[in-house]
Amino acid sequence: MTEIKVHLKEVEASLDELKRKIGELNTNHSHPSFPVSSLDFITKIKAMEDLYYQIVADYKNTLLNIESDVRRHIENLAETDRNIAKKMTI
Fold first, then answer.
1. How far apart are the C-alpha atoms of 75 and 77, rounded to whole Å?
2. Residue 14 DSSP one-character state
3. Keywords on this record (predicted)?
4. DSSP per residue over 8-38, as a string?
5. Which of 12, 27, 71, 89 could be bridged to 57 by S-S, CB 3.0 to 4.6 A?
């Protein structure tokens, strides 16, 4: 039978590092100022920048959700493993 070994401390350390790096993602909109122009180009650049920051913010939230889910599933796996071990010793 194949055995799955999870080194909980290593996983938690990796997840902590991931969460730290996610926190470092800059999602603050810079709001650059452009001179008044009748060109549609500046409007399109601003729209692209707004979209970029929205995508980065969504990506950051998705990563945080994944980190949280992985942490929860690893904890569930560890608890299930402990419960099975208790049942085997009884």
1. 5
2. H
3. Coiled coil
4. HHHHHHHHHHHHHHHHHS------------S
5. 27
- Token pair of 19 as six digits: 């969460």
Give Cβ neighbours of residue 70 (< 8 Å, ≥ 6 apart): 11, 15
- 4 pLDDT above the threshold of 80: no
- Fill in the DSSP letter of residue 30: -
Both tokens of 26, joined, read: 């800059």
Note the pLDDT of residue 1. Answer: 57
Helix, strand, coil shares of the chain, percent, nearest 5, are: 75, 0, 25
Can you give the pTM of this predicted structure? 0.70
Q: Which tens digit of pLDDT belongs to each residue from 37-90?
A: 667 887 888 889 999 999 999 999 999 999 999 999 999 998 998 898 888 876
22 neighbors 63 (Cβ within 8 angstroms)? yes
